[in-house]
Design a protein that fits this description.
The strands form eight sheets. Strands 9, 10, 11, 12 and 13 form a five-stranded antiparallel β-sheet that branches. This protein is mainly beta.
Length: 601
């Protein structure tokens, strides 16, 4: 974090700043715009390799915008470049900080007002040209730079009109000359263009890839062009939150689509979808009371994948374990009375087939959509729900992802977002169960250590655990269900619930005669509660009241790039199952279930 006390920093250029204490690292040039005198200031920061310290903070004569670090000739020194806004036209200032302060070496006047710029070697010569453009306008203006005796001079500008307005231009560096990629209007493909600085750009290849919707940016890396889109196909969703990248690699003279996927965003709060999802859920609701609740099988639209929901009647139970229960752990008591409202719970844990459709939108889901057509309005909302970027490795860590195996290695946040996505897909409100709901459903009206009694010798018939699992999870539904028809509530994979894990939480609940639908909402990233025990646990940990907690160590070998560590984990024994409450919550309450606010650590 910069030790910046200035108000209104509007730019940062990473560039070596000379002078006392220089160590050839990328220092920072940071101009700021103030509402008080002096109106503009420039702060210089020295980079020690461990921290930034302020070198100076001085008044400036003008504002600075759209900065960059650019060499004016091949293999030459890099300079700071930025636009100085003017009343009728802007100017491009190019300067050096070798002396420890900015010294101007070249000013390009009469730059079209409000324009951005790209540098390139479009003529194939050793010295740069600057191309200026304004987003939303169809014109570009080129200014060649020449060098004589070590001094740079700006040449005469020339303006060209393109067939369509530009969203963005980027320069594609070649061995001898540069090309341009133009990102045009929302529904157009990006285009690779030749440009010689003397004639209008010529399209040499449209970059028609996975999606051309809402293209808004591009960058180039060596022999690769990367395009970015904000995936939003419904104008009544005000703030798009899902970014898509598609990369094109140079092969035999042409750029070929090589990979694509979702980009995790720093702002992962896709609240904007919630009111639309809520409206659809309320409009399609048919069950008004507990008597309307029946077992149902539903298909995830656009996938052909089914899941089964089992009704759980409302009622009261004693939550936790009695003091003398064998293998009782700290945090399982005191026992206390809890009242639970009716809900449906998934008959089985979420499987890999179901979860990977959510993770791999750009491949798995899009392929399934081709054979399972879905109304556009469903895809338009569900596509905006934020998802992880494409994993680069096997999320099962070698345990397998074949049909019927439960999904693992997701964070609680990822499980929450699956519920968000599934709700958008189906028009039913789904979420994770609370700890209380989970234990109530697991016990299924019983009060013993296991829902089948107290004898651990009978566990073999109902659960996969250490003694019978061969140290790996098994396909769902192969063991006997509990009295309410739920399979694998004990063992196989442990299951995420909504609550923050707190060893003393039951003590607070016990102070009430009856605790109604308790939920210990998380206020910090760790620990979250997990229930049910897993395939590698002993019988004493696979009881109805057994509680577990998550920890940051589960992300030590995070299986993804870039490392957005709030999505996946390397814990191979935790999955989840979904619930659907009979009572539909308000949009504000829905958002709290799906977006915890503490998913990032």
């Amino acid at each position: 974090m910069l030790p910046n006390s200035a108000i209104g920093p509007n730019l940062a250029i990473a560039i070596d700043i000379g002078g006392a204490g220089n160590n050839a690292l990328d220092d920072l040039y940071v101009p700021s715009n103030f509402n008080s005198d002096p109106g503009f200031r420039v702060t210089l920061y020295r980079n020690s390799g461990k921290a930034f310290t302020q070198i100076s903070n001085t008044p400036a004569t003008a504002d600075s915008a759209r900065g960059n670090r650019v060499s004016l000739k091949r293999g030459g020194k890099e300079y700071a470049t930025f636009v100085i806004p003017g009343e009728k036209a802007d100017s491009l200032l190019i300067g050096t900080l070798d002396s420890g302060k900015l010294e101007n070496i070249l000013t390009v006047p009469n730059v079209p007002k409000g324009s951005d710029y790209i540098p390139g070697y479009f003529r194939g010569e050793a010295v740069r040209e600057f191309v200026f453009y304004t987003s939303g306008e169809p014109t570009i203006t080129v200014c060649p730079i020449s060098e004589a005796g070590g001094k740079f001079t700006a040449g005469a500008m020339k303006t060209f009109t393109l067939p369509k307005p530009i969203t963005q231009l980027v320069s594609v560096e070649g061995e001898k000359k540069s090309r341009m990629v133009g990102v045009f209007e929302e529904t157009e493909s990006a285009q690779l263009m030749d440009f010689d600085g003397a004639n209008a750009p010529v399209v040499v290849q449209p970059l028609a890839g996975y999606t051309n919707r809402f293209l808004h940016a591009a960058l180039t890396l060596s022999d690769t062009i990367i395009l970015f889109s904000c995936q939003l196909a419904s104008t009544n969703i005000p703030t798009p939150k899902t970014a898509i990248y598609q990369a094109y690699q140079l092969k035999n003279g042409n750029y070929v689509l090589s990979t694509k996927g979702n980009l995790p965003l720093l702002d992962d709060r896709d609240d904007s979808t919630v009111p639309l999802i809520h409206k659809r859920i309320v409009a399609s609701l048919t069950e008004k009371s507990e008597s309307d609740m029946k077992v149902y099988t539903n298909t995830i639209p656009g996938t052909g994948l089914d899941y089964v929901m089992t009704p759980i009647p409302g009622g009261e139970f004693a939550m936790g374990s009695p003091d003398k229960e064998k293998d009782r752990q700290a945090g399982e008591g005191p026992q206390h009375r809890v009242k639970i409202s009716p809900f449906w719970m998934a008959k089985y844990e979420v499987t890999w087939q179901q979860f990977l459709v959510f993770v791999y939108k750009d491949t798995t889901e899009m392929t399934l959509r081709e054979s399972n057509p879905t109304p556009d309005e469903i895809n338009q909302i569900s596509d905006v729900v934020t998802r992880p970027s494409k994993p680069y490795g096997d999320m099962s860590f070698g345990l397998g992802q074949s049909r019927g195996l439960p999904a693992i290695a997701m964070t609680q946040h990822a499980a929450n977002k699956f519920c968000h996505w599934l709700s958008a897909k189906t028009g039913h409100f789904y979420r994770l169960p609370t700890e209380a709901e989970w234990e109530y459903a697991c016990r299924a009206g019983t009060s013993t250590a296991y829902f089948f009694g107290d004898n651990a010798a009978d566990l073999e018939k109902y659960a996969w655990y250490f003694d019978n699992s061969d140290s790996k999870y098994q396909k769902i539904g192969k063991k006997l269900p509990n009295p309410w028809g739920l399979h694998d509530m004990l063992g196989n994979v442990a299951e995420w619930v909504l609550d923050q894990y707190d060893e003393s939480y039951y003590q607070a609940c016990a102070k009430e005669s009856v605790s109604v639908d308790p939920w210990n909402k998380a206020t910090k990233p760790y620990p979250h509660a997990i229930r049910g025990g897993a395939y590698d646990d002993d019988p004493g940990l696979v009881r109805c009241s057994s509680r577990f907690k998550s920890g940051p160590e589960w992300k030590m070998t995070y299986p993804n790039l870039p490392k957005t560590v709030w999505w996946l984990s390397d814990c191979t024994k935790v999955g989840f199952r979904i619930v659907r409450p009979l009572k539909v919550p308000s949009p504000e309450e829905m958002a709290k279930y799906w977006i915890s606010g503490v998913e990032k650590d």
